[in-house]
Amino acid sequence: MPIGRIADCRLLWDYVYQLLSDSRYENFIRWEDKESKIFRIVDPNGLARLWGNHKKLPC
After folding, report:
1. Are strands 38-41 and 29-33 parallel, antiparallel or unpaired?
2. Smallest Cα–Cα separation from 26: which of 12, 47, 9?
3. Which residues form a coiled coil (predicted)?
4. Which among 12, 33, 40, 55 is placed 20 to 30 Å from 48, CA to CA?
C-alpha cells in the first residue's frame, strides 16, 4: 500500500487518528498527550501531501 494510504478511511478526522496510531507517521503527526487527545502536526506540508495521496487513489 502506498505511503499515506489507509484502507477504509474517508474522513479527515478518521485519517488523522489512524496516522496517530501508526508510529511510521511520527515525522508528520504525533501525540503530545494521548490521554487528553492532544496531538502535534510536526510537518504540515508533509501531512497535506499524505492526505492528497490518500484522496487521489480510488477507495
Report:
1. antiparallel
2. 47
3. none
4. 33
Residues 11-28: tens digit of each pLDDT: 888 889 999 999 999 999
Euclidean distance between the first and the last CA atom of the chain, given in angstroms as a whole number = 12
Output the nine-digit C-alpha cell for 53.
495521496
**Count of Cβ atoms closer than 10 Å to residue 52 Cβ:** 10
Q: The pTM is what? A: 0.77
The strand pairing partners of 39, in sequence order, are: 31
Strands (E), the chain: 29-33, 38-41
- Which residue type sits at 24? R
Cα(54)–Cα(12) distance, integer angstroms: 10
pLDDT of residue 55: 83
